[in-house]
């Protein structure tokens, strides 16, 4: 007998009364490959045996012919999916990072993290932080993964993510700034269509529609982070909230990308404005794509606007 549905949160997931979770999208995966057909090779490596979590590494095939001592920029990527769906092994992320690595001639490490509802926030943030520390354990050339030891330039480390991953990237850079003793040097972060929110609209142009606001709040409060004391005003979600201070952000530059038709567009712009006004000493660049929606560059990767953003993202890494 099929178990009864306890709750549904389309388009993300359905929860059954027996506790089973059914994800409604973002479950497809493709394997890593050492076949250099797209000029990029990839492999999966476990970074957290305790939680059975892996990273997927992407390396330009031509780097196998690099002269000794020649290093590549390192991109740490945190995928989106509302903290609930997708993974580094999803075709959408595998293919996107393949293109980024090919175009930027960088090494990329795409991070798997525990997801809600089975593992609510803050599990995803804890995992992203432990992955970053694991990656930096290679900075003296003696970590467990040859590709990182041999090819990563730890003076050119970039951290980026989209949607929930953009949110996590900001918090990881804040943590890197706080943990001075760890010497985690991040050059820049790419905060793409970040999932930042709050109980109240951030300005008069932010989403005013009550149903939309309640819908987003429900996903956060009932699935993603049921333990948040103050709901959507949890500082993890309400990044632009009055109490937030960006002065300690642990990087030199930030690329903030927003899309005009995205529900998070005003939050993203408010974030960039708040960074500009803060005591933080770095540089902020904003890229706005007017007529597009949330993560359009992943959904329509060969469109002109997606290719234009890819070029901008690559320039951010190699510039």
Description of the molecule:
The chain has 319 residues and is an alpha/beta fold. It has a single domain (5-318), classed as Alpha/Beta hydrolase fold, catalytic domain (Rossmann fold). It has helices spanning 91-104, 123-136, 146-151, 164-178, 210-224, 265-277, 296-299, 304-318, and strands at 5-9, 13-16, 21-23, 40-48, 53-60, 72-78, 107-111, 152-162, 188-192, 253-259, 283-289. The strands form 2 sheets. It has an 8-stranded mixed β-sheet with strand order 4-5-7-6-8-9-10-11, with helices on both faces. Helix 1 packs across helix 8 (304-318) and helix 2 packs across helix 4 (164-178). The chain is globular. The model has no long low-confidence stretch (mean pLDDT 96).
Distance between the termini: 58 Å
Q: Look at the structure and give the CATH class.
A: Alpha Beta
Number of domains: 1
The number of distinct β-strands equals: 11
The radius of gyration computed from the alpha-carbon positions, rounded to a whole number of angstroms, is 19 Å
Mean pLDDT, as a whole number?
Answer: 96
Helix and strand pattern: EEEEEEHEHHEHEHEHEHH
Low-confidence stretches: none
Give me the number of helical elements. 8
């Amino acid at each position: 007998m099929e178990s009864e549905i306890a709750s549904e949160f389309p388009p993300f997931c359905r929860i059954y009364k027996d506790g089973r979770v059914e994800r409604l999208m973002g479950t497809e995966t493709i394997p890593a490959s050492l076949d250099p057909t797209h000029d990029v090779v990839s492999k999966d490596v476990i970074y957290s045996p305790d939680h059975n979590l892996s990273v997927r590494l992407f390396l330009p095939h031509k780097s196998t012919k690099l002269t000794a001592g020649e290093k590549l920029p390192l991109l740490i990527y945190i995928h989106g999916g509302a903290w609930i769906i997708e993974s580094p092994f999803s075709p959408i992320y595998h293919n996107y990072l393949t293109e980024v690595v090919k175009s930027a001639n960088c090494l990329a490490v795409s991070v798997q993290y525990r997801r809600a509802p089975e593992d609510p926030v803050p599990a995803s943030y804890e995992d992203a932080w432990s992955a970053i520390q694991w990656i930096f354990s290679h900075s003296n050339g003696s970590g467990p993964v040859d590709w990182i030891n041999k090819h990563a330039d730890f003076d050119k480390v970039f951290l980026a993510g989209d949607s929930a991953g953009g949110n996590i990237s900001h918090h990881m850079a804040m943590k890197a700034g706080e943990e001075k003793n760890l010497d985690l040097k991040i050059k820049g972060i790419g905060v793409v269509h970040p999932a930042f929110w709050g109980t109240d609209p951030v300005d008069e142009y932010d989403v005013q529609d009550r149903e939309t606001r309640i819908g987003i709040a429900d996903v956060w409060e009932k699935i993603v982070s049921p333990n948040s004391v103050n709901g959507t005003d949890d500082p993890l979600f309400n990044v632009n909230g009055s109490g937030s201070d960006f002065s300690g952000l642990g990087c030199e530059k930030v690329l903030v990308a927003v899309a005009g038709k995205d529900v998070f567009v005003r939050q993203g712009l408010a974030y960039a404005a708040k960074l500009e006004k803060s005591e933080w000493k770095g540089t902020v660049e904003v890229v706005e794509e007017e007529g597009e929606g949330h993560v359009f560059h992943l959904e329509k990767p060969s469109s002109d606007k997606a290719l234009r953003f890819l070029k901008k993202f690559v320039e951010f890494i190699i510039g």
